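Reviewers of the previous submission asked for a worked example of the structure-prediction workflow described in the proposal, so we include one complete record here. The input consisted solely of the amino acid sequence. No template or homolog information was supplied to the procedure at any stage.
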Amino acid sequence: MHKFLPVLTLAAIIGCRSQPDPPPGEGRLPPAGAAIVMIGPPIGDPHWPAIVGGARRFLSNYPGVRLEVWNLAAADPAEFRKLVQSAKRRQPAAVILYVTNMPNFVAEARGLASAGPRIVTIGLRLDLDVFGHVEVGLADAAGVLGQNLANIAPGRRTYVLLHANGGSPLASQMYLRFNSAALEQSGIVRLTERNVVDARASERELVAAMLAQFPSSALVVTLEPSLWLSRPPEELLGRQRRFATIGAPPTLWGELRSGRAAALVGALDGEIGAQAAELALEAVLDIRREVRTASVRCELVTPETLDDFARRYAESAGLNVAALLPDRQTTRPSQPN
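From that input alone, the workflow returned the following structure tokens.
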């Protein structure tokens, strides 16, 4: 099943802010011991450490608020149901949900919302009554990638494309936005493309087949990064080819620095967590009733701009760059007591 990073519907876009604006009613103090629970995916999601860091950074200005971070032990409804039951017993003022396959868990999330806590979601919009939602501009990110193909493609300026058009509304939006921008670029040629939806082959097999058919292709473009996160890219690409994708977590920075990745398009993940925490704090303070959506934009990251992006990414998470690198991360699964 093809997965899209939530962040990272990622649809309407505004510029990221280095610090979230104070919530309305800034002078009001949250009640002492007010709890916000943050439920995330199983440990290993490359965006999660910075998202949590951004939430902690924002809430550090409100010492009376306690943030509890829980991770699914596995990505299945039974595990999510356990955390929902724990949240009902804990009765927090707000719950932040960041679960990449959240559409499978909507029924359980509705049960949580009916129990009292206000819900803030990150990523895909769900058929769920929520207090707030954080979107990540993945559809616009696809357009940014398409607009820059001619600048990032090495050598022969040819590429192959892997996509999931039709797999979800977001996937279709991303494909259409990429296509619209890419087809306007001169001097670069798409040799072929493959759709993972209903394909009998894996993503890896689809890309291998395209490269076997067109060994002269200089670039492999994917509209989400899972293929490059699962195994070393050089195993599939060989020595000369490069890849470009949507998503810019620290786990891919080494590929960009080495030149194996030609470009990434991604968000400052700490801003996602900070925006979610701001919405959750509004729930704690009970300062509004209407649903509010916050949006985080994505940006093009190249080997030349990586150092600046990494610095700002770390700042958004309240961490240093070294702590975010794959061999330095020490995040461990957390569960309710």
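The chain has a mean pLDDT of 86. We consider this example representative of the routine output the project will generate in years two and three.
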